[in-house]
Each structure stands twice: as C-alpha cells, then as structure tokens.
Amino acid sequence: MGKVIAMGNMKGGVGKSTAGCFLANYLYLSGSTVCVIDCDNRQTSLSDERMIDIEKGIDKDDTYSITALKSSETHAIVRTHIAPEYDYTFIDLPGNLDQDGSLECYLKCDEIILLFNVTRKDLLSTFKFIEILKEEGYKGNIVGLPWKINPMKKEWHNFISETPEDNQFTHKSSMGIPVLKTFVKNDEVSFDRNASTSTLFKNSKGEIANEEVLIELKNYLKNV
Ligand SMILES: Nc1ncnc2c1ncn2[C@@H]1O[C@H](COP(=O)(O)OP(=O)(O)O)[C@@H](O)[C@H]1O
Ligand SMILES: [Mg+2]
Q1: Residue 23 Cβ < 6 Å to ligand 1
Q2: What DSSP string runs through 149-165?
Q3: What is the pLDDT of residues 152-175, one digit of tens each?
C-alpha cells in the first residue's frame, strides 16, 4: 500500500496544484509510481493541463498518471482501489472545504502537506484548517511547507528565527506542526507561471533545480 497525500489548505491560490505537480513529477522521475487524483471538480485543471501537454507531445506512458474523479467518490475508494497500485497517490482538492467529500478526502490521507505563505491572513486560515482536521479526528501526519515565499522579506526571517523580533504570532513554533525548510527561493529558482504537469524547477542559470526545492520534502516522505 502506497502513501495517500493531499497538498492542503482551505484557501485557494496557495499553490496546492502547482506544488503537487512538481512533487509528483519529481517522485516519478526518481523512480516511484505516482497517481494524482484531480478532485477540483469545478476546474478539473490538472486533467485539462495534461491533455494540453499530450497535444504538445508529452509521452503519456512516460509520466505520472492524472485521473479526474469526484471528491464525493474518491474518499470511498482511494485506499481500497487506487493507493494499492502506486507508491504515492496525491489528491488535488479545491481551495475550500465546501465541495462534497473534500473533508472526507483529507481524513483518508496518510500525509497532508500544508502549503502556506507567511502572512497573517494565510497563517490564520492555516491554523483554522489544522484545528478543523483535529476536531474531525484526522489521524495522519501534517507537515507545513512554506510556499511562494519571498526570502528577502522581514516576515520570513521573523517566522524562521529562533527569537522572533516582534510578533510571536508569526514564529514557526506557533504552527504546532513540523515545518520543512523547503520553499521556493525566488532569487535562485525561477518559477514558470504556465507550469505544465511535468515542469521542472530551473535555477537562474537555467539548470534543473528540483533537488534544491524538493529534496527535503522527498526525504520527509521517505522517512514517515
Ligand atoms: N512558488 C510560486 N511562485 C509564484 N507563483 C506560484 C507559485 N506556486 C504557484 N504559483 C501560481 O499561483 C497560482 C495559484 O496556484 P495553484 O497551484 O493553482 O493554487 P491552488 O491549487 O492552491 O489553488 C497559479 O497561477 C500558479 O502558477
Ligand atoms: Mg488547485
């Protein structure tokens, strides 16, 4: 039985789908079998993007799988019918918990990788999300993944520093969950906004920089 993982947050636009694709692609290229279940029923964006990729010539037999499935159906079958077939099964969910079956999907996961930015608004919604998962009896692991971070900003330094200067609220220990160091280093790693389902991170010299961005996350998943 492989791991069932959701890139989480009950907020849209934090980078769940994008980060999920990068990670799924990276794990596939490292030799794992990977499936992404596209449960964003309204947008089904990943399935659409994959179709465009195939039209552009991506070999559909040499990449990870993407399957569109309703969240109201996914939670009932993910562990029995999908996860046994792959090393990693990702569930890509919409940016709120209103869609039928969304919360149930999260509750079925072994891991929730919680993406967030270090702003007060993002952190508040992230704390609330952790609280809801606990109230609903979530038994798996939750790990924080700072994303869309500008490493030059004071709020980021305050968040990671041992002794935050002013606002304790933004210190990482207040998350109450492990937080990975991995983040997208804007100054060193370029991010393609029109990222396809099999895009790689590149550094400023145009070299592939997936290891830099995703290695800690990959090691985390190997060790839990
Ligand atoms: N690290 C990043 N840096 C800059 N833009 C990003 C980054 N990750 C994602 N984006 C962009 O942010 C937008 C929302 O990302 P998306 O993955 O669709 O979020 P979600 O799935 O959480 O709604 C997209 O336009 C995407 O290209
Ligand atoms: Mg999304």
Answers
A1: no
A2: --TTSHHHHHHHSSS-S
A3: 788 888 888 888 777 667 788 888
